[in-house]
Amino acid sequence: MSELRGKRALVTGASSGIGAAIARDLAARGTNLVLTARRKEQLEAVAAECRAAGVTVDVITADLGAPGAVATLWDAAVAGGSIDICINNAGFGYFRPFGEVEASREAELVQLNITSLVELSRRWVAGRTGGTGAGRRYLMNIASIGAYQSVPNMALYAASKAFVRNFTEALHDELARTESSATCICPGGTETEFHAQAGAGNYGWVANASMMSAEACAKRSVVAMLKRRRTYIPGLINKLSCFGVRFVPRRFASWMAQRVLGKPRPGALPERSIAA
Ligand SMILES: NC(=O)c1ccc[n+]([C@@H]2O[C@H](COP(=O)([O-])OP(=O)(O)OC[C@H]3O[C@@H](n4cnc5c(N)ncnc54)[C@H](OP(=O)(O)O)[C@@H]3O)[C@@H](O)[C@H]2O)c1
Q: Which pLDDT belongs to residue 273?
């Protein structure tokens, strides 16, 4: 617990799901927080829970799916002190054939899942020498088990997570033998708002059987980060499936993913409200 006490962490996508659970876990370990997402009310509710653990919490709303948002967010975050821990968790996907969703939504996905994550990682790396935080520093980038293969109906999402995995693992190796470490987390199905937002959820039994709570995913992910793991996959079935794809043709793995995920839910994708 003491290792993270007094450090300061930026958590993106902290208004719900895995990000909110990571924020609560870090607060319980004595970490001061900067929480960001678009929905202010939900962020404030998570912040209040974290403050009850005795840590300081700053809330900054930002739409990281929009170009230029990272610079403003980072400047506001470091105004309150250096960032020792950067948790790039915010992300979304949609479960639809590629091209059936507006191009603007695809651009938003690339901006949020890839570009903003890279921009925040860059600022965290740059803070390595100039920051005031003493001792160990941590970067956690959230990918997915979808990073291990192509996923029909989630083509762009899975590709974005493959990017996150390759990028973060390379960064981990670059930072070896320094006080800083980068860890890539690859969750499988986790009980969050993600599935409803993605228009997914008609899953096969394998996907349902391996579903994990956001709290369990967060707790294990923070421990993996503290152990300076290169990559961590929460859950045995998820670990086995990511290991198993090494031994089957890529086309077969893609077909399997399609079977496990089932069909997209009919109807329009939900629009998440954007807080001012
Ligand atoms: N749940 C799963 O099964 C699963 C599996 C593998 C990987 N993951 C990954 O886990 C991460 C967390 O997702 P989750 O499952 O916890 O889903 P979630 O409950 O929908 O959380 C997503 C978070 O990202 C934030 N976000 C979305 N768009 C944003 C934007 N444009 N700007 C800033 N923040 C934005 C959301 O906040 P606002 O809407 O308030 O902005 C929310 O806090 C994602 O990277 C996801 O890809 C999830």
A: 53
What one-letter code names the amino acid at 221?
S
Q: Are 142 and 190 in contact (CB under 8 A)?
A: no
Long-range contact set of residues 95-98: C-beta below 8 Å, sequence gap at least 24: 95/153, 95/154, 95/198, 95/199, 95/200, 95/261, 95/264, 95/265, 96/153, 96/199, 96/264, 96/269, 97/152, 97/153, 97/264, 98/155, 98/156
User: Does residue 235's CB lie within 6 angstroms of at least one atom of ligand 1?
Assistant: no
In short, whether 119's Cβ falls inside 6 Å of ligand 1 is: no
Q: Give percent of the chain with pLDDT exceeding 70.
A: 95
- Which of 148, 157, 203, 232 is labelled catalytic? 157
The encoded tokens of residue 107 equal: 């651009």
Residue entry with tokens 């974005």? 160
Residue 148 annotated as catalytic? no
Read off the DSSP letter of residue 73.
H
In order of start, what are the domains of the chain with their CATH numbers? 2-261 (3.40.50.720)
Residues in the chain, total:
276
